[in-house]
Amino acid sequence: MKLMAFRMGKDIQLGILSEDLIVNLHAVEREYKKHHSSGSSLPSDLKQLIEQSDAILPYIEELIKFANDGSGANYSLPVSQVEILPPVSNPEKLICVGLNYLDHCKETGLEPPSSPVIFSKYANAIIGEKAAIEIPVNSNQVDYEAELAIVIGKEAKHVSEEEAEEYIFGYTIMNDISARDQQFADGQWSRGKSADTFAPIGPVIVTKDEVGDPHRLDISLTLNGQIMQESNTENLIFNVSQIVSYLSQSMTLRPGDIIATGTPPGVGMGRDPQVWLKDGDNLSVSIEKIGTLTNPVKKATSKNKGGRKESAASL
Fold first, then answer.
1. Which of 35, 65, 83 is the last residue of a domain?
2. Residue 313: is its pLDDT beyond 50?
3. Which of 43, 120, 158, 275 would staple 48 via disulfide (CB 3.0–4.6 Å)?
4. What is the domain range of residue 117?
5. Alpha carbon distances (Å) from 296 to 107, 122, 191, 197, 230
């Protein structure tokens, strides 16, 4: 199931993506309730859906069955007609794993870690499909990083590697945009990784049953149509279960938390000559069984120093 959030006019809706069409779950539910009594109701956002997933996912299956019953009603609309929002715009935690592909360690000149390298990004950085990545006025070395992201489905504390998969809801895509000049000047990564718009996420969350083995997924990034990163998640140093278990020993993971698992080689910093994002660029991250996340790049101005629209920040 490929779940997504989107905006039609002023209204935020939940949907299921099928190729280039979105099934509007709220539209299906309105018609369904004219014919059926149900104690269930769709939540207003995907974070709430994840929190209530044990009850809501069977209800969604019921809605899908109703939508496909042959009544002739059309609940689908083209992706091009809506604004796709970040699947989860307000996670309690947005956690990232650094240096988690061996060849990426080599291109950065850093030793492979003996345990996961952990840092955080913040909700101000989150944007969705086709929203613009803004280059800050105080940086000229902004880079890209294609990453598989875990979406936590249940509260997790002190879970073993063997148990970890039970606590995962699904997977999405993140582009870990990074201002390298700030990242390495500071001695720690928070400022260089957490500028406004530096965490494009989406366009969907795919439930774990549909993804299957998360360690057999092709992952790639293109810049203006040119392949810059190309690998497979089988090359992760620390796998998904190891990451979830490791984090849960120190912090309680909660439904809707997002964990980006690291980037493969090919980042702009590691190239000769180095490649930095510039105004007018276009980035696309593709992960097998999940989809493609595309974002344009623009330079922020002194009057518009970067950031999400107020309407998006309030989701």
1. 83
2. no
3. 43
4. 88-307
5. 26, 20, 22, 11, 20
